[in-house]
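Issue 218. Parser rejects a valid record. Input:
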Amino acid sequence: MKRLLVFCFLSLAIVANAQKGKKIDPTKTSETAERPSVDSVMGYALYEGMTAAAALEYQLPPESETDPVTGKTSYFKDVKKRNDSIRVAFVKAMKMRDQVFYIKNRKPKKAGERWKLCINIVNKDTNLTKCFNDSSIIDPETKMVLFEKQVGDSIYMLILVEAYNKRLNTCGKEKEAKLYFARWHPKNNEAKWKVKTFSSCYKTITNMTKTPVAEWDKKSVLTISYHKGSNFYDIFFDPEHPEKGIQSNKDSGNE
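Output the parser choked on:
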């Protein structure tokens, strides 16, 4: 009987040690399959489907431990102190992260949802993120602010995004290319956007512009020519009058 009790006690101790500090990983679809993190801050992964705070807490070491036999909980003050310091630094790092211009994709989280292209624009201590439904531009090679100017309370921005088509093998080296124009009011953090596609294998739009758009001198009027269907179009942007936004010789609407 004593041997049986000793064996049971040792078994519980082994299980307790094996599960010490173990957490349930909500990102795992099975014991061996884990969804990749989409980003990281301070070396801590930001998992899809989790808030940044929840992702951080999942990865921090445990601050307490409960003995499965006695039920007594031990608290680790030194671990909590380190974790609290990390939490404070993490919040600051997240704020700094949002204060940087970036363009990135957001994958669909469930069936029926579309890919999104998210643009984060920044002015001083204010940022605004706008996401567009977009399944054509994936991991863009070119993502840059072509023009930015503040007039009164408004900021006018012209953004170029270009990407080799990664969804259709028949597109070869054709690029998906778009211009994004934003009229942004940082005080109330609202913006009006206009999008123009001037190159797309998806939409059979061919860029006819001779000089690469990324090499625009930002002084002369930017002119982009493209062919769609049986028609030719020209779009313009005048840096002397940014309030006019993207203009067209024949407005074909948002592409």
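Fixed in the parser; the record now loads. The helical segments are 2-19, 52-59, 77-98.
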